[in-house]
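Late entry, evening session. Most of the bench is empty. Finally got around to the prediction I had been postponing all week. Sequence below, unchanged from the version circulated by S.P.
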Amino acid sequence: MPVRKPHHLLILGGTAEAAALAQAALEGFGDRMAVTTSLAGRTEQPGPLPGQVRIGGFGGVPGLRDFLAAEHVDLMIDATHPFADQIARHAREAAEAAQIPRLMLIRPPWRRHALDRWIEVGDVPGAAAVLPRVGRRVFLTLGASELDAFAAQTDRFFLVRLIDPPRAPLGFADHEIVLGRGPFTVAGERQLMRRHAIDVLVAKASGGAATEAKVIAARELSIPIVMVRRPLPERGERADSVEAALVWIRRRLALLDRQLRTVSTES
């Protein structure tokens, strides 16, 4: 009797939730399922991940569809950043074309507190546009690819937090770079903002515990936050926690096993 290959789960990762899911999936279903986490490669030194890891883009929808077929992927979970709208769209289109079950693991957004001073905008250029009427010493927590929108504002100081050192000089007249990877503490964020006399924070509405400390610190210091709203999620099944994603995996594995038994019986 031929040995049946284990099922294959592809996790589109790069978030803390994706790493936790890979670990939990292997612990819970490792005897029945291989797990591959795919990273875009934007971070130079990603943290350790269990299971198989691939790094780099797929080459759009056709490349992802080819990967799904070549690697015999049975299930896909999009656990990318809430603002990674392009890969989310590619994941949906590729999964639909390959007829592979897909789940979106989307972390809950931060809840706005009554004392929060949020100025919500639709995108990063919108955040840059409102700064002249909000503050002059700006804490930017957006990521290296989003900084150009602010470079023309030469009359402001920018404290720029990045995970990796920039590969080229930033185009700011007055700035300082601070390197760091979450989770951050409220005390640390409060001290950082005070030390640099920050009077406005610019952030994406990413959600998650790892970077929420800056939101709480800004609230305590009565510092306004220019908050970039999330893009609308793609259509499809969603989970808001690793635990809910594991329930989905368990249910999907049961369906896959049932289908295999039916095919084996018919043949």
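Two things to note before I forget:
The helical segments are 16-29, 60-70, 85-98, 124-130, 186-195, 212-220, 242-266.
The chain has a mean pLDDT of 92.
Will write this up properly tomorrow.
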